[in-house]
Amino acid sequence: MTQITHNWDQHAEAAIEALLTGPGYYLVESVFSEAQVADANRIINAHSDTAQTATHFHGGHEDKIHLQRRVWNLLNKGEVFVDMVQHPLVMKVFGKILGKKFILGSYAANRLLPGAPGQEPHVDYPYWDMHDADEFPTGISSAFHMNCQSLISLHEFTAENGATAIVPESQTRAVYPTAAQFADEHIQLPCPPGSLLLFVGMAWHCSMPNNSQGERTSILGQYLPKFVKPMEALDQSIAPAVRDAATPELRQLLGIDLRYPELLEDSDAGNAEGRSA
To answer: Using N-to-C axis directions, what is the helix angle for 88-98 and 8-21, rounded to 10°?
Structure first.
């Protein structure tokens, strides 16, 4: 696999249009080098050879949960993941869609072994409860987005091994997908190892069953506007060494310099002031 040189400004312009008004996703092939892919796979495998953590939306396949393995807290597990999470295209595209101080909500690996089932079609956090309208404010829509996702392929993605499936333009519907609609309208996105897929969380998508003899691993990044509560408590889990070495971009993603929430009143001073009045 040869790493391709890209013009990230040109890609960013095209990706923003694709995510907002186009199909809802944008794929760039062979973004990461063979060495980066190999390093990431090695670390993920070491942390998941004995783990049996199911992915979200596993669709009732409890008997095959051991074939779906998540590895969390990647930023503590290797410099390769720190580099990947703040890739220039991610920062350019998501900064425009989510606001320039957008944050990281979750960063994990999804390893599907041979025979692993696919997921049920879904939308991503914080939208993933949209099947219950009472969970959300009245009138929620796709007028602006509260989630963008990145997916990095660490193996070749094919139809046989369960390449990501997505319904083009579904991000404009602002409703939860049904299995029947998804089956009728979805496409799959084959790609080489080291590719980068960007999409908005309101797009209907899922991983498909791995019917091959090999495993299929991806790295999944969840990015949110600064005012949406993150899914993972990254502020509590990040190692001090990672935090101390963070670039300005990583500090932004971790929400280190966000002002809110903050204590706006010293309770003792406030009580004394009240008594003196």
So the answer is: 40
Question: Which residues sit opposite 122 in a β-bridge?
Answer: 205
Q: What's the predicted TM-score (pTM) here?
A: 0.91
pLDDT at 276 over 70: no
Structure tokens at 192: 């080489």
CB proximity list for 104: less than 8 A, separation 6 or greater: 85, 221, 222, 223, 224, 230, 234, 253, 254, 255
Per-residue pLDDT tens digits for 29-87: 999 999 999 999 999 999 998 765 655 655 566 667 778 889 999 999 999 999 999 99
109: β partners:
71, 219
CA dist list (Å): 221 to 103, 143, 267:
11, 22, 39
What pLDDT does residue 1 have?
Answer: 46
Cα torsion angle, 38, 44, 46, 48, sign: negative
Contact 155, 208 (CB under 8 A): no
Place of tokens 């949209």: 130
Q: Which residue shows structure tokens 């390769």?
A: 80
* Matching residue, tokens 């944008």: 26
Q: How far is CA 273 from the centre of its chain?
A: 47
Q: Where are the alpha helices (DSSP H) in 116-266?
A: 179-185, 234-237, 240-244, 248-253
Peptide bond into 168 cis (omega under 30): no
- Spatial distance between the Cα atoms of 139 and 159, rounded to a whole number of angstroms: 37
Q: For the segment 224-255, what is each residue's pLDDT rounded down to a tens digit?
A: 999 999 999 998 899 999 999 999 999 999 99
Give the span between the Cα atoms of 257 and 169, in whole angstroms.
35
If you ran DSSP here, which 8-state letter would residue 196 be given? E
